[in-house]
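agent: user wants the full assembly modeled, not chains individually. Plan: 1) parse entity lines 2) check alphabet per entity 3) run joint structure prediction 4) return tokens. Steps 1-2 passed, two entities, 592 residues total. Proceeding.
--- entities ---
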Amino acid sequence: MIKVEDPRFRNLERKIGLFILVALTGIILVVALVGVQRGVFTKTYTLHFTVDRGTGFSKGMPVKLSGFRIGRVTDLALNEQAMVAITIEVDHKYKKWIRSDSTVKLVKEGLVGDSIVEVAVGSLNKPEIRDGESISYVKTKGLDEMADEIAEKVKPVLHEVREIIAYVNDPNSDLKKTIHNLEILTRNLEQTRGRADLLLASTTRNLETISQRSTSLLETTTRKIDSLDVAKLNTSLEKLPPLLEKTDTAMATVNAISAETKKLAEQAFPQIPGLLSRTDELLFNTDRLMNNLNNSWLLGGGAASSPHRSISAGDSHD
Amino acid sequence: MTKILGCLLISLTLASCFGGGAVTRSVSQQRLTDLQQRAQISADKGFYDDARRLLQEALQLAGSLDDRQGQTAVLVQQARLARQNNQQAQAGQAVAQALNLSVGSDLHADAAQEKALQELAAGRTDQALNWAEIALREERGDRLARRLNLLARLALLQGRTTDAANLAEQALKKSGAEPMAAERANALRMLGTVRGQQQRYAEGEQLLGQALELDKQLELPDRIAADLEALAVVAALRGDQVRQQDYRHRAQTVMDSLIKRRKTPGTPQAGQNR
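--- prediction returned ---
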């Protein structure tokens, strides 16, 4: 029996076994990594909802909550009512956000982006949706529906625009008549302008005539002024300054008299009450003197009346 | 001509010697009397502020001369003026000073009478009666009729008609002198009123008619109105409604005219000689 003693084949079995082990380990790791990345090992739970049309939905399309991927569409199937039953798979850790009042809807990510299923966050006071339960679907309008809606809204506007155009084009409409009147007015303005030009020309002629007459008048006036006796006028003017001086003197005298009168009045006014009092007293004394004379024996009167007691007190019925 | 002028000169000399009057007073005394008279005239004309000012001047003059009689007389006059203007506090103050100053003098009766009139105006007839009796007791001059009449008036107000009649009769007897003519009319009015109440209508009307004539002579409108009112009352008691209406209408006319005159200060008031 021939024995091969090549050193490269020494421990060959061990080497092959080690190689296979490393390869298997690598494969397992890759599978594991892919599984982790794909969420194969993530704990999920399923939810269901029904839509009338399955357009836009596809298996594996992402399910997002607040823009963050939380699961995917796992199944689409027609049910007994010919509606599309859709099953989604959601990570279990996001279960707390999905409550009984949460909704799902089909939306597009951006204007030309992929369609996704978006889940709206529910109220925290509502119970969580459990595995296998249904979630409400909110229908979103597709482009065709939106186009129809816009078309419905634009239709009456277009109708009105058509009516306006028809009105404008109608020869019997007010607008047409107004435009016609404007044309007539413009033609009349031309005529008016012609008449205004004639009037201006006439006015210019009249002004020229007036100017000629004014010149003649001014010449006549100049001749008259030249014929005036300047010497006499100068004599009269020479007499004016002394006259004005006299007037000034008279005014000064009047002012002085006025000031003096004012001063005298100021001095006299405070004395008036006293003067009146003294006058009153004088009149009273005169009256008393007359009474005394009347009462004197010479004029047939009696003795003078008694002093002040008689006038002080009232009588019994005072 | 010379003779006539000589006679005139002699006459004037005699007049100045014998006709100067019975009372001779100093210039200040004369001025005091003048001020009082002027004040009275001003008050009668309705110029109460002037009257008050003149009386104040008179009081200062009397005070500067230590003339207690003069001061008392002015104070009584001030009290009277204030009372007539419903200034009770000022009137009471003035009469209190007058009573203090006049103790023992013949003016004390005047002050007491003024006090009685103030009490009467205030509706305190008992107090008024006390002061009226003091005035009668203190009277030493010729004003007895005035004191008696005040007592008669108070008796009449208190319903003591007999006393009132007696006092009025006494006043009538004491009011013979001319200065007491107003008091004579007052006595006649009260007596006539009492006689009417005693159903002695004719006598009452006669007495009231005399009072009316006297008051007309004295030109005292308020007294004339009082006489006519008293005559209306007697006519009513007699049952003569026509005369009652007539007297009442006349009294009303007199009072209306008097009120109108008083509303116009400066209008000379009649009867300044009371």
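agent: reporting back. The beta strands of chain A are 44-51, 62-65, 68-78, 84-91, 103-108, 115-119, 136-137. The two ends of chain A are 187 Å apart (CA to CA).
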